[in-house]
Amino acid sequence: MKLEFSEVLPGFKILLRKEGLSVSENIIYRNFNILLSIAFLDVLVFLFLLKDLEPSWPFKLCVAELVIFVVLMILHARGYMVFARYAVFLVTLCVQSMASIIHGKSEGFDYLFFAIGLLPMLFFQRAAHYASLFFISMATMLSVHYVYSITDPILSLGPYILYWNMFFTGTIIFLMMYIFKSGYERTQKKLLDQNNMISQQKEEIEVINNNLEQIIVDRTAKIKDHEQRITKFTFINEHRVRSPLARIMGLLNLIDLESNKAKTLEDYLPILKSNAEELNNMLKEVSDTLNEINIEKKK
């Protein structure tokens, strides 16, 4: 069965971002997975160096370390983040202690104790977690150096391992400082943006306070004007509109009472027309007044 890249990609994405975490928590989550991946590659390098070496138990030890790292990475992705992170550092301490004692001081495995002691501060919120790992790391380093003084190395890997361990330790510490610096800069930028927003809001409030009296005067004038328009509309509706309408209705009643309706209609038609025009003008005035009120409301 052929595995498509699109099917593998979601598995990699979960190492960079996890649903349900905040932005800052996701950054820590991603950085830890990157660190664990770097440690994984470091172990792969040693697997390559130890594959033909006798005895074979150092090679098997590296294989076991890889398996443990994979398991802890899965647990970390599944949400057991504090446990997985703490376990990774403890496992790394144990492995580095064994490597230091087996290969001796000249191999440089003990340099990593400094990185292991400092790195947890980037990945734990509780002081008890990173402080305990720091003290465990320092105590382990002192113990290893004591063992150096009473025993000889069991297996030497050559001078290049020292250079690799120095480079690897320096890289880890550099990445740690870079991550810390990036986080600090992000925090500073966020604070600066918040300060700018607060300053802008403060300026807006000051402008409003300075113009508050004029704003009240303008709004009061608008309210009074609105009330006058409503009063005008009420007057037109109650008096000026009803007057021509009442006259028209009265004329219609007179026409209805007359016996000669044709002659009566001919006499009253000009009067009806005049009152109808007056009523039409009044209705137009009412319409204009209502339109003005609606326009004022929209403003």
List keywords for this structure.
10 helices, 0% strand, mainly alpha, 299 residues, disordered N terminus
What fraction strand? under 5%
Rg for CA atoms: 44 Å
Distance between the termini: 69 Å
- Helicity, as a percent range: over 70%
**How would you characterize the largest beta sheet?**
none
Order of helix and strand elements from N to C terminus: HHHHHHHHHH
Number of strands: 0
Average pLDDT, to the nearest integer? Answer: 78
Poorly predicted regions are: 1-10
Summing up helix and strand content along with how strands pair, one would put the structural category as mainly alpha
Cα shape:
rod-shaped
Number of domains: 2
Number of alpha- plus pi-helical segments: 10
Please give a structural write-up.
The protein is mainly α and 299 residues long. It has 2 domains: 5-184, no CATH class; 209-298. It contains 10 helices and no strands. It has helices at residues 5-13, 23-50, 57-77, 81-103, 112-118, 127-150, 160-210, 212-240, 242-257, 261-298. Helix 3 packs antiparallel against helix 4, helix 5 packs parallel to helix 7 (160-210) and helix 8 packs antiparallel against helix 10. The radius of gyration is 44 Å and the shape is rod-shaped. The protein starts with a helix and ends with a helix.
SSE map:
Layout: H1 5-13, H2 23-50, H3 57-77, H4 81-103, H5 112-118, H6 127-150, H7 160-210, H8 212-240, H9 242-257, H10 261-298
